[in-house]
Amino acid sequence: MPRFSANLHYLFTEVPFMQRFEAAAEAGFEAVEFQVPYDFPAAELCTRLRAHGLEMVLFDAPMGDWDRGDRGLAAVPGRETEFRDSLERAVEYGAALDCTTVHVMAGVVRAGAAYDDARRVYIENLRHAAAFLRGHGLKAVIEPINNKMGLVRGGPDYTTQGMHGYFLNHTVQARRIIEEVGSDNLFLHLDCYHMQMLEGNLAQTIRDNIDLVRHFQVAGVPGRHEPDIGEINYPFLFDLIDELGYAGWIGCEYRPRGNTMEGLGWAAPYGIGPARR
């Protein structure tokens, strides 16, 4: 059976962030993820996780200055030192939260920037990150993200429908990068929402890449709402992922159309949602 984690930057936004751990546990989630833990003391986050019996399964390495448009640093020429220094903070939080999977974000390619330069820097930085994180018991993942859309107007911090100008956009591109980096500590993070936005052909793409996948995420297309809304047949994909022997987590990174708990009807077959109450 699929194992689902609640993304706390997207779900349960009806309550303040620190109360979302309790809300996730009450809904039946056994794991959580969120992009940016650095806004909070690691010890406080750890206390919340333990208090509610939750496992932390994914967070992002520091991505630069979000408010100034940074969406990661790994593929940004000229900021190599800043990127590599930032990994120390990822290690600190990974240890404190007992989380072993870190999303290394590529970043945005600015208008007029040379793609080949960004790609070269990306590969060099990923080689460094994979080796550095391995030394601290952490795994690195990279995620193709659609570059057609951006922030949700009026939405919570870090809630997006895509990232304009993001460097890494397609599964084939990500796989080639991983193969060129040549590390067995660098994996693929596939968000089915982004895949559908830019590629389609989800089932075959998952089959072709399951050997590299360490994390999945889901949301409906269009709109990035609950996974039972829109054009993706998620029950079919969940069965396929099970059939392929995937034992990792599937992150719920979607924007509820209304109350988070009321929108969890899709998850009832997996022991999550309002029916537990």
**Tally of DSSP β-strands:** 8
- What is the fourth-level CATH superfamily? Divalent-metal-dependent TIM barrel enzymes
Uncertain segments? none
DSSP strand content = 5-15%
Question: Strands of the largest sheet, in order across it?
Answer: 1-2-3-4-5-6-7-8
Molecular shape: globular
Average pLDDT, rounded to a whole number, is 93
Rg, rounded, reads 18 Å
Order of helices and strands: EHEHEHEHEHEHHEHE
Query: What fold name goes in the CATH topology slot?
Result: TIM Barrel
Biggest β-sheet, characterized?
8 strands, parallel, barrel
Structural class from helices and strands? alpha/beta
In which range does the helix fraction lie? Answer: 25-40%
- Taken together, the total number of domains comes to 1
Q: What is the distance, rounded to the nearest whole angstrom, between the alpha carbons of the first and last residues?
A: 21 Å
Number of DSSP helices?
A: 8
CATH class placement: Alpha Beta
